[in-house]
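Here is one chain, start to finish.
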Amino acid sequence: MRGLKGKGVLITGGASGIGAATAARFLEEGAKVCVLDRDARGNEAITKRLPNLSGTVAADVSRLDEVRAAFAEAVRLMGRVDVLINNAGISIRHAFLDITPEEWAKILAVNLTGVFYVAQTAARHMMDRGSGVILHTASTNGIAGHRLYADYNATKAGVISLTRSMAIELAPKVRVNSVAPGYVLTPMQRAEYTDAMLEEVNRKIPLGRHAAPEEIAGLFAYLASDDGAYLTGQVYVIDGGETAGGLASR
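Its structure:
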């Protein structure tokens, strides 16, 4: 991709899954990369896996004081933050009627308020510098209804709306987009699947398989690069055709 070499990239939730794959991809593009994650063991592991990282910073994105301190440290490590991959998120699988107020608050605190905290902190830095790119991890769950994840779905729909509003307000200096993956076969998800479960899910995806985390990372790299310089305010679905015919609701 054009224009990524030497850029400072901060990735939240970057110690595993999509975040880790995205960190590896931006390093391949010649960018400086800093991972923000609340998991100390995960930060240690990703540092060993990707020794060329500029560093890792520990923070809970639902706590504004920790976000501000971590962002300042990322700026110290890389000199600046040109690209934010706002990827940290959690989910709890349960029926709508079983969601407790505490669980609802926890999901919103990380997946929506946390996204806002990191995005606003980064946006102020980027607006002062005159340029930047902010990319959020949304989900097809924020576009079509899914059973057993009502709280998660609501936060991802919120992220999509936040993306559009930010893009309008921050243009032309800062571009803002969302990536909405469908099923992604991270190591954690694969460990939860039996072979039969994996096959069952794959049958409803037109391409017949889950995405690899590296494929999501490739889209992030494109959107952050100069090749995507005219793209802002959009949500890019990457789901193997799952939602093309409304299949997500089955």
